[in-house]
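PROTEIN SPECIFICATION:
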Amino acid sequence: MPPVRVLVVDDSRAMRALIRSCLERDPGVRVVGEAGDPYEAREAVRAMAPDVILLDVNMPKMDGLAFLERVMRLRPTPVIMVSSEVAEGSALSLAARQIGAVDCVRKPMIADAHDRPFPDLAARVRAAALVPAGSLVARPPVSAPRPAQRTSGPVLAIGASTGGVDALLRILSAFPENCPPTVVTQHMPEGFIGGFARRLNGHCAAEIREATAGAPLLPGRVYLAPGHAHLEVTGRVHLVCRLNEGPAVSGHRPSCDVMFASLARLGPAAVGVILTGMGRDGAAGLLKLRAAGGHTLGQDAATSLVYGMPGAAFDVGAVARQLPLAEIGGAALALCAAAGTKD
């Protein structure tokens, strides 16, 4: 396949050069142009028709979010926001994704600029280029839905990585306020999960919180794995959160594999969902859950920003059903409700 053609938009010439040098190490990516502000970028988009745009937020003449909105409205193109202010779960990250950005990458700190800056940027560019054009639309801010019919049932576990912030927002914002107890492992740097939980709370009827050791799993609550520990479900009469600060598993801490495996003892009283993400984390744990009688779902390739994790889980037989993102939340709730009626 031909290299992915990239336009880099940043008012810093040094940052543009750094991004170019990182990308051009990958033969599957080619930087076809640079722009120092949105007006230069507008002309470059018209002239070059890039496959992917890397876009800064703070720029002269027009900020990056305003330019992103114009791109999505006039010439939908996969856009990755590259800024020091778009860490996963930040307000700017959520705003950019709602407008239509497919990914957000944080710029390296000055001290880290010479130590493998942007280590996975080329891979994320290649993944962005595969996003279907029809999904590149501006999305209005999500409002909390009215509570749906009461849902009772087992524990629901969701694992995600690259692209998962947007996927989780779409799924959790449709959950009723009395949803099944839900545990989530989203690969995210330590220190950002609390803020991500607070911002999700502004869009969700259920209560979203960062998991703490010993917290009881209750209906209507969603528990996010903290950035420094694996999240497990333990307990006999009453289920609680357990934080495990052991070594990384499948290259991650928190690990989806650890979370899913901890639910295997619940058998049919557990539902596991694996969403978009790079790598294989979650496949082995989800397979243990399914082998124990648990119900499992996976995001399909067409709607995954990166089909690595759900694809790996499907390949090993851990996924009972693959579904598009828009159908996963409803299917997971239905499985929980069905399991609850058998108790």
Observations:
- DSSP finds eleven helices and 14 strands in the chain.
- The first helix runs from residue 13 to 23.
- The chain has two domains: 4-135, 155-340.
- The two ends are 52 Å apart (CA to CA).
